[in-house]
């Protein structure tokens, strides 16, 4: 019995000691000045935090706000959650409010919550991103100037940590202001440069996380990459449609900076990409920047730019040489396919029709959905039809093979449908007629081999 009594006493003492330790831990805030200037204020702060959090957990934001406001006013430094949860509370109150004036005041308070969060817990770039996106969602174009400055600063601070969605809104507000004549085209171009560099950094950052193998982080990084791809498309579309991306504006801005940046590979890449995107590749600045870039860093993009440059100058031999380099260096199959197609058009201009097919087939090997490559083959067949075979019926049978390619083009690539239909309507008029074909033993549905370098089977139709 003594042993049992002794053990029970030890257990009781242990429980009491643990309770005292737990109570002391719970009361640590009493010595923490973040909770208030004295113990009474700290007790009040802790109580209010507990009360509003209970309502918050129940999503009873209307009842949570009064106690939350006491914490926000009297002990804001106590917890970052005061600002995170406070923003959630006010967003719900804003969404529920029907009166416009009252709603506006609630939005003002939400913006102040973000400002105070920065004061007490820093993270300026991340908080400005949330603040700017929220302000634009509530006040739209009326707040474009303010939102643009917020999000521009956020992108500059966050760089690769910038969240998807923020960059689109930043670009949208720049375009809003430009259309309202609040900023000039140069500022829109500057916004686009910032948007693209931020996207590049964010994509690289999330690719690194996705490749890390961290099971907790990989799914979020993969989802973020999908969202950043949407951002990229949005930014490109906004810039293209803004009206600010004119050749004159781009050349004026970048031409003045050329001498100072002609040895900067990244700057040259940016300039050549912008000039090419806006069809300014006939300007001498594009030529200078492209040649400087290729000299510093031979690449597929630089070689293709030079090919197009020499093509514009009608120097077809040099254009073909640079297209060869571009295709050899390009690793992305969709881009490689486009380069081969463009190269085939240079050869077409030189009437090298058999070579056109070779290049178009290489384009299709890289990207089987490149309908333009099928169009190129069909056009080459049609262009050389009168040299295929000896008889007129043989010449005209070539158009069957050409139309086969036009049909295939729109089958694999709907964007080619309109052009393919025009070509079909043009060349089916040159099909052999029934009487002529019959003399050579050809009937509707017959399998016919088109001769010469084409050497391809087709089906007779009239």
Please supply descriptive tags for the structure shown above.
462 residues, mainly alpha, two-stranded antiparallel ribbon, elongated, disordered N terminus
Word description of this protein:
With 462 residues, the protein is an all-alpha fold. Among the domains are: 31 residues; 89 residues, Alpha Horseshoe (Serine Threonine Protein Phosphatase 5, Tetratricopeptide repeat); 94 residues. 73% of the residues lie in helices and 2% in strands. The protein has 22 helices and two strands. Strands 1-2 form a two-stranded antiparallel ribbon. Helix 13 runs antiparallel to helix 14 and helix 20 runs antiparallel to helix 21. The longest helix has 26 residues.
| Quaternary structure annotation | single chain
Number of strands: 2
SS-based class: mainly alpha
* CA radius of gyration: 34 Å
Average of pLDDT: 89
Fraction of residues in helices?
over 70%
pLDDT under 50 segments (min length 5)? 1-25
What does the overall shape look like?
elongated
Spatial order of strands in the largest sheet: 1-2
**Main sheet makeup:** 2 strands, antiparallel
SSE string: HHHHHHHHHHHHHHHHHHHHHHEE
Number of helices: 22
Beta-strand percentage range:
under 5%
C-alpha termini separation: 113 Å
